[in-house]
């Protein structure tokens, strides 16, 4: 089945735009593949260093060029719940490799920071840049040229996009992504948000807040709301980089281990040494990227991916734009309601039918390209399944349920929650921005109110505590872009704005910073581009200016004349506090090199 004409037209537009970069990229992939892995070109001294700690039999195997060697890139650490399960994965992968006559080595590790820990802290200013550090760390791990394929162990916000950029840079190698899965369900996300608002209003203390948070984030695995981490897993599956049905199986279960072992064997099966060579640089093409964007819209996924997908695509020579993302949003219906877009968590989504159900609905409706290459082979239809544990401990797959287990969480196409996607692009005299509308009630999607201009999150919280925000207003938070301070997420604003909205005020946020996949019920025009530090119009807004945020027509305006706006200057703000502490001094070069949000916010040229 082919995709709808509108989907095909956007894909073709991306394909034509990408030709100047995609052609040379594919030539580089072909050249690298023609040199083989590899070890055949290494000197004896090179090889001796590369397998010094291996067993005698492994040294003999690696000394030739017919036994596949699997590189493991891991984001393991034991502080963060999403990454702690990866501790045992390398041994599982090595055992699985030996079972099929291959070898596996940990090629390298990448940093994995948690935005949940650094929210509102100086370390959050390194978060976006960590994606590019992860990409470079991946390259360092694979640059030894010892490997025939690679598996990537990553879950959370910047980790998976960074790994993807690294994988695409080594596009001649097959790439299989292996998730760890979400933690089991704790208290409801809605209850967690309620306690946060009570704390902000001074109605409960820190002890009650910590107890609530600890009941929500309570064990190994990904946070269960549908933020960037779980959006990452959806993307890897719908783009064909996971094995079918792998995304949302809980850690430390027999099925999770079976899926991990299967993924390792699959990676070894698709190397150039076999008969089914699937290099990731050729496998992923414009159709795969469009499928990822469609999945993002259909699930109401993370706003971070309006930057990450652009950067990921660019690493494979594909030029994706915000306009492409916006046009796809106008076409693709919203089929999932997972917090913050609803009350359910990702475990409920999985129980209702999960990605197998969603992918089948989108394929049958013509919203996805079915004729793509995946790590599983030709076509996306094999991903319309549910993975289960067979009696012998291996993975078996059954067709996804014909009927959703809960249509309040996962809807069939005829009962879509809304006819358009969860994300919307805004344009106007303040520049370009992104808004997540799937969690915003329709009556809140147009806000017109006076501006309250701020240069920090703390400034808003101080005004709130002083009782000065009991009114309709648009918070305009500037100097939060990539060049200014690394573009941190701004979730210290979420609770305060939510309280004010619940009190009946019409409020919104406009910022050149980020809010991520946890963007919720308050309308937020984020990623405003160009940023204030680059002279963007957001820096020219003054207190009291009337701002209109219109997520229906897709506009973002300050309601003054163009002549007056042009005559205003952007004030100089002292940003020196962003330059030092918590490692920020090491990232001065990153801030200087960072690109615009609509180009991926990357330090790499795009």
UniProtKB/TrEMBL annotation:
Matches recorded under InterPro entries: 6-phosphgluc_deHydtase, Dihydro-acid_dehy_C, DiOHA_6PGluconate_deHydtase_CS, ILV_EDD_C, ILV_EDD_N, IlvD/EDD_N
Keyword Zinc: no
Occurrences of domain Dihydroxy-acid/6-phosphogluconate dehydratase N-terminal (ranges): 68-380
Leading EC class: lyase
Pathway terms, separated by semicolons: Carbohydrate metabolism; Entner-Doudoroff pathway
Cofactor: [4Fe-4S] cluster
GO molecular function: 4 iron, 4 sulfur cluster binding; metal ion binding; phosphogluconate dehydratase activity
Catalytic reactions of this protein: 6-phospho-D-gluconate = 2-dehydro-3-deoxy-6-phospho-D-gluconate + H2O
GO cellular component: cytosol
Keywords: 4Fe-4S, Carbohydrate metabolism, Gluconate utilization, Iron, Iron-sulfur, Lyase, Metal-binding
A GO BP annotation: D-gluconate metabolic process
Note accompanying the cofactor annotation: Binds 1 [4Fe-4S] cluster.
Binding site for [4Fe-4S] cluster: 156, 223
Record-listed E.C. numbers: 4.2.1.12
Record-annotated Dihydroxy-acid/6-phosphogluconate dehydratase C-terminal domain positions: 408-600
Lineage: superkingdom: Bacteria
NCBIfam families tied to this protein: edd
Role this protein plays: Catalyzes the dehydration of 6-phospho-D-gluconate to 2-dehydro-3-deoxy-6-phospho-D-gluconate.
Family: Belongs to the IlvD/Edd family.
Classification via HAMAP family: Edd
Official protein name in the record: Phosphogluconate dehydratase
Lineage, broadest ranks: Bacteria, Pseudomonadati, Pseudomonadota, Alphaproteobacteria, Hyphomicrobiales
Gene: edd
């Amino acid at each position: 089945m082919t995709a709808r004409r509108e989907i095909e037209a956007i894909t073709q537009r991306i394909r034509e735009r990408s030709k100047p970069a995609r052609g040379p990229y594919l030539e580089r992939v072909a050249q690298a593949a023609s040199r083989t892995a590899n070890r055949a070109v290494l000197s004896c001294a090179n090889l001796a260093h590369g397998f010094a700690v291996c067993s005698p039999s492994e040294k003999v195997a690696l000394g030739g060029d017919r036994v596949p060697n699997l590189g493991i890139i891991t984001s393991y650490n034991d502080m963060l719940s999403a990454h702690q399960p990866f501790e045992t994965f390398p041994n599982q992968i090595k055992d699985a490799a030996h079972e099929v006559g291959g070898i596996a080595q940990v090629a390298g590790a990448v940093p994995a920071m948690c935005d949940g820990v650094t929210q509102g802290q100086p370390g959050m200013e390194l978060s976006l840049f960590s994606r590019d550090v992860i990409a470079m760390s991946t390259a360092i791990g694979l640059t030894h040229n010892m490997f025939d394929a690679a598996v990537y162990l990553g879950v959370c916000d910047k980790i998976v996009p960074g790994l993807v950029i690294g994988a695409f840079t080594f596009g001649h190698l097959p790439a299989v992504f292996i998730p760890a899965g979400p933690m089991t369900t704790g208290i409801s996300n809605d209850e967690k948000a309620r306690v946060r608002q009570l704390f902000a209003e001074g109605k409960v203390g820190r002890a009650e807040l910590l107890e609530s948070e600890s009941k929500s984030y309570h064990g190994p695995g990904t946070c269960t709301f549908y933020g960037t981490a779980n959006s990452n897993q959806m993307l890897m599956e719908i783009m064909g980089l996971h094995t079918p049905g792998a995304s949302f199986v809980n850690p430390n279960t027999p099925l999770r281990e079976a899926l991990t072992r299967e993924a390792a064997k699959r990676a070894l099966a698709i190397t150039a040494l076999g008969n089914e060579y699937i290099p990731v640089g050729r496998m992923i093409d414009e159709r795969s990227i469009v499928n990822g964007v469609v999945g993002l819209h259909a699930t109401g996924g993370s706003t971070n991916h309006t930057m990450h997908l652009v950067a990921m695509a660019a690493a494979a020579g594909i030029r994706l734009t915000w306009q492409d993302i916006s046009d796809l949003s106008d076409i693709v219906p919203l089929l999932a309601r997972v917090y913050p877009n609803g009350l359910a968590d990702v475990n409920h989504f999985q129980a209702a039918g999960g990605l197998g159900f969603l992918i089948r609905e989108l394929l049958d409706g013509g919203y996805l390209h079915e004729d793509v290459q995946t790590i599983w082979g030709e076509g996306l239809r094999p991903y319309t399944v549910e993975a289960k544990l067979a009696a012998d401990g291996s993975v078996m797959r059954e067709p996804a349920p014909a009927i959703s287990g809960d249509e309040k969480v996962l809807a069939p196409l005829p009962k879509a929650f809304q006819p358009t996607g969860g994300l919307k692009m805004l344009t106007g005299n303040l520049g370009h921005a992104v808004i997540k509308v799937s969690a915003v009630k329709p009556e809140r999607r147009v806000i017109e109110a006076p501006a309250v201009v701020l240069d920090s999150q703390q400034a808003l919280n101080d005004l709130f505590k002083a009782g000065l925000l009991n009114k309709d207003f648009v918070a305009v938070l500037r100097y939060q872009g990539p060049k200014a301070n690394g573009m941190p997420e701004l979730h210290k604003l979420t609770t305060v704005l939510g309280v004010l909205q619940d009190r009946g005020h019409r409020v919104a946020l406009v910022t050149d910073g980020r809010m991520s996949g946890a963007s919720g019920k308050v309308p937020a025009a984020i990623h405003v581009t160009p940023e204030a530090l680059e002279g963007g119009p957001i820096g020219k807004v003054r207190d009291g200016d009337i701002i209109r945020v219109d997520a229906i027509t897709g506009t973002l305006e300050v309601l003054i004349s163009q002549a007056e706006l042009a005559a205003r200057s952007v004030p100089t703000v002292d940003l020196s506090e962003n330059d030092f502490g918590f490692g920020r001094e090491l990232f001065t070069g990153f801030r200087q090199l960072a690109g615009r949000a609509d180009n991926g916010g990357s330090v790499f040229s795009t």
